[in-house]
Amino acid sequence: MRPEQQRLTPLERANLVAFLDGELNEGESRSISSKLRDSPTARREAEVLEKTCELLQHLDRPQASTSLTERTMTEVKRLSDRGGELETAFKLVGRKAVRASIWLLASLLAFGLGYAMTLWVWPDPTARLARDLTLAKHLDEYRAVGSIDFLKELANSTEFGTDQDD
Fold first, then answer.
1. How far apart are alpha carbons 34 and 36 in whole angstroms?
2. CA–CA separation, 33 and 19 (whole Å)
3. In the chain, what is the straight-line distance between the N-terminal and C-terminal CA atoms, in Å?
4. Would you say 151 and 145 are in contact if contact means Cβ atoms under 8 Å apart?
5. Which one of 4, 8, 58, 84 counts the least CB within 10 Å of its CB?
6. How far apart are CA 30 and CA 117, in angstroms?
7. What is the pLDDT of residues 17-63, one digit of tens each?
8. Are 12 and 34 in contact (CB under 8 A)?
9. Can you give the pTM of this predicted structure?
10. What does the CA dihedral 83, 85, 91, 92 come to, rounded to 10 degrees?
11. What confidence score (pLDDT) does residue 95 get?
12. CB 16 within 8 A of CB 50
C-alpha cells in the first residue's frame, strides 16, 4: 500500500484522541503525526474524529435523576464507613502470617535442637563396635561358649598348657 493511502493501525486509532489532546509521549506522537502528514487517508480519519467530538460538544448532557444521585451517595457513604474493613482484613492476615512464621521457625529450631541432641548425646552403638572390633570379630565364637565356667575349665585343662597340679 502506498504511503499516501496508509490507514491508522488499531493502536494508533486508539491513541488518536490522546494525540489530539496532546497527552501522548514524544515517540508515539511523532509516529502518528508523521503518518497524518504523509497519508491523506489517515488525515481524513483524524478529521472525522475531530468533527465527531465537536458535534458531541453541542449535545445536551443528560442529568442524573435525584434518586440515582441519592442512591449513589448513600452507597458511597456506606462504602466509606466500611472502608477500614479491607485494611483490617489485611492487618489480620498479616498478623496470622507473622504468627505462623514464628511457629514454623520455633518448630524448625526445636527439630534441629532435638536432632543435634540425638546426634551428639545419644550413644552410637556402631562406635562401640568399632572400638571393640576384635570382640566383634569373634562374637559368634564367644556366644557358642555359653558361660565363663566353661572358659575356666579350658584354662585349667591340660590341653591348653596349664594344670591344676602346678
1. 5
2. 9
3. 128
4. yes
5. 58
6. 72
7. 888 888 888 888 888 888 888 888 888 888 888 888 888 888 888 88
8. no
9. 0.36
10. 180
11. 93
12. no
- 3-state SS string for 52-109: HHHHHHHCCCCCCCHHHHHHHHHHHHHHHHCCHHHHHHHHHHHHHHHHHHHHHHHHHH
For residue 32, what is the enclosing H or E element?
helix 26-38
The single-letter code of the amino acid at 134 is T
Question: 24 is written with which cell numbers?
Answer: 501522548
C-alpha cell at position 140: 559368634
Helix (H, G, I), strand (E, B) or coil at 4: helix
Give the total residue count for the chain.
166
What pLDDT does 166 receive? Answer: 46
- Range with the lowest mean pLDDT among 63-67, 86-90, 148-152? 86-90
Contact yes or no for 129/136 (Cβ under 8 A): yes
